């Protein structure tokens, strides 16, 4: 391994949530996470606004996502981010990750269609992984996606729909609205409550495809009869852009449709979700229409306080717990539940501690840490009982059922008083170990498992002098 290269074997790519990337247009910062910038510069909403429809990069070529928001970032009434820096610093310190080597941050223009960023990952990740494999001298290194909020949707689309499944070790989502979040419906329909700049900010947010890709696809809108309906139901008059709402649902369902109906055990090990819990969270909506001062109908979306099922109003304050489960899960599989708010979930100490342990387990298989009783039946040894001094001694070592032998093979003198160091066999090729130029004498060949030396297996061998 190249000196100074990080010790963690895989490539970790971190994706922030909506509003979690600093954006610049023509060299000027148009978003840094602080919503009060709108108060101080009336031109900011115009500079943040899309020039096209957000479905392609070309009209937005002058906007650049330059870095993640390391501190606090808030898109009012939609979502927030906090403590990314704390999370990544802890991962670097605990796992030996190095920024720019095997920890890559992926800031993105969070206003655009998330499919664009998934495609960008497909373009960049193979190059990044090739560079890391070469630098670490580890041709089996894979990618671990670590993503907060909307970033998890981008990672999942890249892996399941756009073609990165083959090189991905795991996707770990933190507070990701896999099934959408009812809270996201208020901004495009109802606007952002606040000061005089709210109308301009609302107009900007309403035009973003990404905002509509956060909308809930499950029935959550209570009609006049008390029935829960979906936002895409034609009978639900919500004042939203119907086509953008429908496309947002298509985006989420593309991920669902790309996942095999019956994932095997290996696939179950490749998807993990950190889910915020125990916080009051909007899970149902009521839509009403009133007559405005100019005589036009004004649509209002409000949260319904009464849940229909126990736990409906629990989540991380933004994403209901049920929605933070990956869309194909019918029951929890690789989920961990943490009492925390969506904004600070990625940097919460219990979450960071879990991530350190999870990433470690993804890199270092547990089969190296088996119980002694099980290990004893795993080691097999095949070697001759006679040999000629000066010739190479070939030994075969392996497990009895699956896997590969991990440990060392040595040639030791039988005489305990002999002042001779054991000879170590060379690294194996398909289970074959070699001791070059075995010395004459009475010896033991010993296969010693790495995880439990007491489970060693040995055989006697007589090495006769050459004629």
TrEMBL record:
Superkingdom, taxonomy of origin: Bacteria
GO BP terms, alphabetized: lipid metabolic process
Organism name: Embleya hyalina
InterPro entries xref list: AB_hydrolase_fold, LACT/PDAT_acylTrfase
Pfam families: LCAT
Name assigned to this protein: Lecithin:cholesterol acyltransferase
Lineage of origin: Bacteria, Bacillati, Actinomycetota, Actinomycetes, Kitasatosporales
Entry GO MF terms: O-acyltransferase activity
């Amino acid at each position: 391994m190249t000196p100074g290269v990080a010790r963690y074997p895989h490539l970790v790519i971190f994706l922030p949530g909506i509003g979690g990337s600093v954006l610049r247009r023509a060299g000027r910062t148009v978003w840094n996470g602080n919503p009060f910038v709108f108060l101080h510069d009336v031109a900011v909403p115009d500079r943040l606004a899309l020039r096209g429809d957000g479905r392609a990069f070309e009209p937005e070529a002058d906007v650049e996502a330059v870095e993640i928001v390391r501190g606090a970032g808030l898109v009012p009434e939609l979502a927030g981010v906090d403590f990314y820096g704390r999370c990544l610093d802890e991962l670097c310190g605990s796992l030996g990750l190095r920024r720019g080597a095997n920890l890559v941050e992926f800031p993105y223009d969070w206003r655009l269609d998330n499919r664009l960023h998934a495609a960008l990952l497909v373009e960049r990740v193979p190059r990044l992984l090739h560079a890391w494999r070469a630098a670490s001298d580890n041709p089996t290194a894979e990618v671990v996606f670590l993503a907060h909020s909307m970033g998890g949707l981008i990672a999942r689309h890249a892996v399941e729909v756009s073609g990165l499944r083959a090189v991905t070790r795991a996707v770990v989502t933190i507070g990701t609205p896999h099934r959408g979040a009812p809270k996201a419906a208020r901004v495009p329909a109802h606007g952002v409550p606040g000061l005089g700049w709210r109308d301009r900010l609302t107009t900007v947010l309403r035009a973003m495809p990404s905002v509509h890709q956060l909308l809930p696809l499950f029935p959550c809108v209570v009609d006049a009869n008390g029935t829960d309906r979906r936002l895409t139901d034609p009978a639900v008059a919500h004042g939203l852009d119907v086509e953008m709402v429908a496309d947002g649902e298509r985006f989420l369902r593309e991920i669902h449709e790309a996942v095999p109906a019956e994932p095997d055990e290996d696939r179950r090990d490749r998807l993990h979700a950190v889910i915020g819990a125990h916080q009051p969270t909007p899970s149902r909506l009521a839509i009403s229409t009133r007559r405005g001062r100019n005589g036009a109908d004004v649509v209002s979306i409000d949260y319904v306080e009464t849940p229909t099922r126990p736990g409906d109003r629990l989540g991380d304050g933004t994403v209901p717990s049920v929605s933070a489960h990956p869309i194909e899960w019918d029951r929890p599989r690789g989920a961990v539940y943490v009492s925390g708010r969506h904004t600070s979930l990625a940097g919460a100490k219990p979450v960071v501690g879990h991530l350190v342990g999870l990433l470690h387990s993804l890199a270092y298989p547990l089969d190296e840490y088996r119980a002694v009783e099980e290990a004893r039946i795993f080691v097999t040894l095949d070697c001759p009982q006679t040999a000629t001094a000066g010739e190479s001694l070939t030994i075969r070592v392996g497990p009895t059922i699956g896997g590969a032998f991990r440990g060392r093979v040595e040639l030791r003198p039988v005489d305990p008083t002999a002042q001779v160091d054991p000879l170590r066999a060379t690294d194996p090729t398909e289970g074959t170990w070699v001791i070059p130029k075995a010395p004459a004498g009475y010896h033991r060949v010993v296969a010693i498992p790495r995880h439990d030396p007491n489970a060693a297996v040995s055989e006697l061998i007589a090495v006769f002098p050459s004629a």
